[in-house]
Amino acid sequence: MKKTPEYINKLKGHILLVINIIGLVITLLISVYNHFASKLLSTEIYLLIYLSASGLTLGITITLCVIDMQRQIKTKEAMPEQKNTKKDVVEQQSSEKTSSLLSSFPLNENIIMESRIIRSDLEFYQLIDSLRDRAQKRAYSTYYTVTPIHNQRIDVSYFDKDVSFCKSHPQVEVRRIITIHSERKFDMCQKMVERFKDGSITNFHLAYLNINNFDEYDYQPPVMGMQIFDDEIIIMNPKVARITSPFKPCLYIKSKEIADIFASYHDELWNKIANSDKNDHPKKKLGYILKDGTEVNNTEAVWDFIKNQVKPQYWKNEDKK
Fold first, then answer.
1. CA dist 97 to 81, 83, 204, Å?
2. In terms of domains, do 222 and 296 share one?
3. Structural domain harbouring 202
4. 285 vs 170, more confident
5. Helix, strand or coil for residue 73?
6. Do residue 237 and residue 140 come from a single domain?
7. Are 137 and 254 within one domain?
8. CB-CB contact of 134 with 229 (8 Å)
9. 269 within 8 A of 142, measured Cβ to Cβ
10. CA dihedral in degrees (268, 274, 280, 286; nearest 10)?
11. Which distant-in-sequence residues (6+ apart) come within 8 Å of 113 by Cβ?
12. pLDDT at 233 over 90
C-alpha cells in the first residue's frame, strides 16, 4: 500500500489520540489508587507519580507536534507553490504537452533554404519556366484564374511548354488541377485533352475542379493556388484564387518539408475529384479527371457539363478585362 501524505497524517492523529487516552487512563488509575491505598505511600509520592505521568504524556504530544511542523515547513520550502484552479491545471498540462512536442523537433534546423516575394506576372512565368526545366520528380499546380496572363500567345505557350516538357522528362509527373471560367480557356483545355487521345504521353495528368461545388466557409481562404516543382513551391496570393482580381504578389519557397505539405493537399484534392467523378450525381460533381495516365475523358457530356458551369458574364468578355 502506498503511504500518501493523507495516510501519514491520519496515522499521526490516531497515535496522538492513543497517547492522550493512555495518559488519561494513567491519571485516573493514580487517582483511584490514591484514594484506596493512601496508607501505603505518602501523598508526595502519589503527587510525583501523577505529575510524572501527565508530564510524559504532554511531552510526547508536544514533541510529535514540533516534529510534524518542522517536516511541513521543509516540504513547503522544497516544493513550488501549487495553483489549484482548474484553469491553471489545464494551462500547465497544455504547456507540458507543447514542451514535449517542441522537444521532439529540431528547432534549430533551417527547413527553408530560400524564399522571396514574386511581385509581377512576368517574373512569375519566368520563374515557372526555370523551375519546370530543372524538375526531376514532380510538377504539380492548381490553376484557377481565367488565363495565366491576359495575352493569348503566352497563354497557349504555357500549356505547349507542359507538353514539350512531358515528352523530354518522362520521369516527372506533371499534374494540374484547373478551373474553367471563359470560352478561351474552355477551348484551350479541350484541345489539350484531344492531343492526348493517342496515349503517347502518360506522365501528364489533368483534372477539372467545379469550384461552384467546392465547400468553403467564411473563415477559411478559398481553394489554394500553388505551383510545386520537386522541393520548390510558389504559393499564390489567396486573393486571386478566383477570377476577380489581376495578379497579386505571391510567395516562392525552397523547402522539401513545406513542398511535401502542399503536395499532400494537392493529392487529397485530386483524389476527391476522382471519387466525385465516379460516384456523384452530375449536379453535385466536384469535377472530372480529364487526363490520367493513358486514360482520357473527352466525352461530349463532360464538356457540356463544364460549359454550363461558366458564368455568362465571363464566357465572351475575358479579352475586355
1. 21, 18, 44
2. yes
3. 115-320
4. 170
5. helix
6. yes
7. yes
8. yes
9. yes
10. 60
11. 254, 255
12. yes
